[in-house]
Structure formats: C-alpha cells, structure tokens
Amino acid sequence: MIRLGIINAAASARRHGDPIADWIEAVARRCGAFQVERINLKEVNLPLFDEPELPRLRRYVNPHTMEWSKRIDALDAFIVVMPEYNRGYPAILKNAIDYLAREWAFKPVSVVSYGATMSGGVRAAESLTPVLVAMQMMVVREQVMIPFAPTHLHDGVFLPTEGMQEGAEAMCEALVRADAAMHLLRTDLDEVGDQQGVAPFGADEVVTGRDPNQPRDDREAWRRAGGVGPELGTSTEIFRPER
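The structure corresponding to this sequence follows.
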C-alpha cells in the first residue's frame, strides 16, 4: 500500500478544509491503493522555523522538528488541501515545508485548492508548484480546483460536482503511477542496482538483477491489475457520504 498523507493547510478558525479533506480521503480509500494519514497543520502547530542548521543536513535539535521529520519521512505521497489567501498559499504550509528537506524528496504530490470565488485557488496552486519542485517532489498534473467552495458545503459535508469527483479519482490514479517511479528514486543505491541489473556504484561485479516478469512491489502489481483495488474497484459515481 502507498502511505498517503492528506495535508489540511487551512489556518483560519472558520476553515472549510476539514470537510473537503474528508471527501478526498474517501476518494483515496475507494481507490484501493492507499493507506491514508490525515495531517492538520493547525493541530501540528509548528512554530516559525527555529532550527539552528539547514534542514538538508538533518541535524535537528528541537523535539517538534524531530517529530515532524519522523511523520513525513514515513509517508510515500501527499495531497495538499489548501485555500487561497490573497492569491497565495497559506504561510502555515510554507513553514511546514521549510522545516524539512530529504523527507520530502522524490515523493509525488498533488494539490486540491479551493476559494470563495471563481478562481478556485488556482493562483495559490500555481505559486506552490515551484516550491514543491525545489523540494525534489514530483507534482502530478492532475489536480482539483474548487471554486465557490462554501456553496458545496451542506450541514458541514462537502458535496462535489461530477467533474470534481472525476478529477479527484484521476488525481489518485496519477499519484499511484507517479509513486511507482519515485519509489525507485527513493530506493537505496544498492537495491536500485539489483532491480535494474547493473552494478551499484563502487561495485566490481554486475548484479544479475531481478526477474523482469515479476512485479517489483505492490505498486507495480496494482498497475498490472488495471489500477483496480483488490475489493473496492474503481468508481465514477458522485461521492455521497454515509449519513
């Protein structure tokens, strides 16, 4: 299973991120490929970056940084659910990203942005992309933009349009495909050499490699099965939460 972190980056006390993240979590679980962990940045409550050394050195001194590092390091892929603030993304998100470096690297990520106007947070998503790329993350093209977000909330539940639902499902499938490639980049060099049938750096002998007819891992097996979960399958119906 792909360990997916759904990051709720809303900071406002009257934020709409929770019901939207609930919907995204339901879509991801129905995909059948993910083990989901929810991350609410307001609850994580990181102080403004306060480490004495560069994050890429990974020599952390603060307990909150060590805990944040451990949590992000354990995940394989991410979906960021965020509002647009003044044509940009939330400061709480930038701070959380800047705390770490290697923990983000070579992991796929997508964005679900929303706003109270027609833009649906697209400007925030576009401004976030260069930051994620700088962290060596793979930003998949399939993303979800939600315009007029408050109009889709009914009794605290987010009800998407058919297009939003289809977009969310396509996003999840794209993350699965991207993770198969990025998983290899995150692999130790010795294991990479074994998988590709080449000698690792510094080795004298060529490694024979794996059987090409066998899936490399459960991600590849998932793709070979047609991208269908073992029991849940895929769904194109509009999401409706259970009451």
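The first helix runs from residue 17 to 31.
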